[in-house]
Write a structure and sequence with these properties.
Helix content is 23%, strand content 31%. The chain has helices spanning 2-22, 38-45, 148-155; strands spanning 53-59, 62-70, 77-84, 100-104, 113-117, 125-132, 135-142.
């Protein structure tokens, strides 16, 4: 019986600590340029993609990382861009491109919004933008392998990063 109490006490002590350790505060260094696996994208979007191609820019006290995932056998690209901005300016709404419309997602905890249309050569373009702390994340899909009306619900299935 004494061992059970010790185990219970150890569990109460270590589980909160483990939870706190898992939720480390975000820093510019904690951003991952290609946050999704090919399997995650295929499951959420029902599109097969090639491995992501990462890009990164570092500035004093900020960082901008991105990844391009090319849809296999198609002229469609999924892009993910995360911008750490210590001033918080990256989270401000950007004007929509010519021919695009912007829609807020009501009640979204990250202030997410859609930018739909406005792509080159009248190809479908959808962008999901949201902000967490000092990081603005943009998930954009552009090309001919999808329909805008169907892709919005699929993009929402991708886990939110960072």
């Amino acid at each position: 019986m004494k061992n059970h109490r010790l185990l219970a006490l150890a569990a109460m002590t270590w589980f909160p600590l483990g939870s706190a350790m898992a939720e480390q505060p975000l820093t510019p260094a904690s951003l991952t340029p290609c946050p999704y696996t090919q399997e995650e994208i295929e499951k959420a979007l029902n599109l097969k993609v090639n491995a992501g191609e990462a890009a990164e820019m570092k500035f004093p006290a900020s960082r901008d990382v991105g990844c391009l995932y090319q849809v296999a056998g198609a002229a469609t690209t999924l892009a993910v861009r995360q911008t750490w901005d210590p001033t918080g300016d990256s989270g401000k709404a950007q004007p929509a491109a010519a021919g695009a419309r912007t829609e807020a997602i009501p009640g979204d905890p990250d202030g997410a919004q859609w930018k739909i249309g406005g792509g080159d050569r009248d190809e479908p373009t959808i962008e999901l933008t949201y902000t967490r702390g000092k990081v603005q994340t943009r998930v954009l899909i552009h090309g001919r392998s999808f329909r805008e009306t169907e892709m919005q619900s699929k993009l929402l299935k991708l886990r939110r990063v960072p």
